[in-house]
Amino acid sequence: MKQILYILFLICSFASHQLVGQTIILHGKVLTTQDAENVHVINKTSKKNTITNSSGLFNIEVKRQDTLIFSSLQHELQMLIIDRETYNKGAVVITLLEHVNKLDEVTVGKILTGNMNSDVANVEGEPMTSKKAGIPSYQGKPLTQTQRHLKDAGDLNPKLGGSLGGLGASIRLIPIINAISGRTKEMKTYVRLEEKEALIYHLKTHVSASVFADYPLDEDYVVEFLYFASEQPDFLERCKNKTTVDQYEYLKEKLHVYYSNKNVTTN
User: Fold this and answer.
1) Per-residue burial over 115-136, b = 16 or more CB atoms within 10 Å of its CB, e = otherwise
2) Can you list the alpha helix ranges (DSSP code H) found in the chain?
3) Alpha-carbon dihedral sign for residues 165, 170, 173, 178
4) Which member of 34, 118, 122, 252 lies 3.0 to 4.6 Å from 74 by CB, making a disulfide possible if both were Cys?
């Protein structure tokens, strides 16, 4: 009897493995208040990619547990893991959020109107800031939406005036729950993906043309190559906040590796 159960277990395990490993064509649609055309859809697991048409429709090969990334300049980065339900349906609808770029305020010049209340703001001298007044405030580079979520998810700083056993301080429970549930780790992954997406766009628009002029690559493989490069362990270390020359050298180095993996040679 035990042998029969063991054999049945092996059969079920094998069938489950076969199902997970089977590739299907996923039919999808992108919904957005912006232009739905030319949104990049990348299968991060298989390195396959496609773009949406004018109606926001796309088709892409997937397996169970594959990770899809939806990326465009107009939208926030979106990630989707192909679960059992999506796999069985063979179709998915994704709603993308608009990416809002906040512009710094620009002062054209001093305008005196004769109104005391408005003209006081235009007198010579540096403006009073929270830093000069000794008021604690964030002085660094503005955080992206994902970075703000990550900071909130993992902020364990005690807050004065609380009541932790009468000690006059309280510790936020949400970050502890996030750490236990894995949400903080998930947010770190989103921040890293966001950094990579911004860097990939920069390389594509400012550096890749020079690289491909010297080392030609079929246009159909450009996006695939850039995501191949972004998956290398040293990508952020060697490209983030580096000079164009450094980034050119990095892409050139990885392009030779990509050619080797593809079994092709440069022209």
Assistant:
1) eeeeeeeeeeeeeeeeeeeeee
2) 2-21, 84-89, 116-119, 145-154, 173-181, 183-206, 208-214, 222-230, 235-239, 244-262
3) negative
4) 34
The model's pTM is: 0.45
Evaluate whether 184 touches 153 at the Cβ level (below 8 Å).
yes
With cut-offs at 50, 70 and 90, classify the pLDDT of residue 26. Answer: very high
Output the six-digit token pair for 66: 């594959």
Identify which of 216, 223, 203, 227 has the alpha carbon closest to the alpha carbon of residue 256.
216
Q: Residue with structure tokens 């092709």? A: 264
Helix/strand/coil for 94: strand
CB 255 within 8 A of CB 213: no
Give dist(CA 133, CA 36) in Å, integer.
Answer: 47
253 HSE (CA, 13 A, CB side) = 12
Q: Do the beta carbons of residue 30 and residue 36 sit within 8 Å? A: yes
Rounded Cα distance, 26 and 62, in Å: 6
186 phi/psi in degrees, rounded to 5: -65, -40
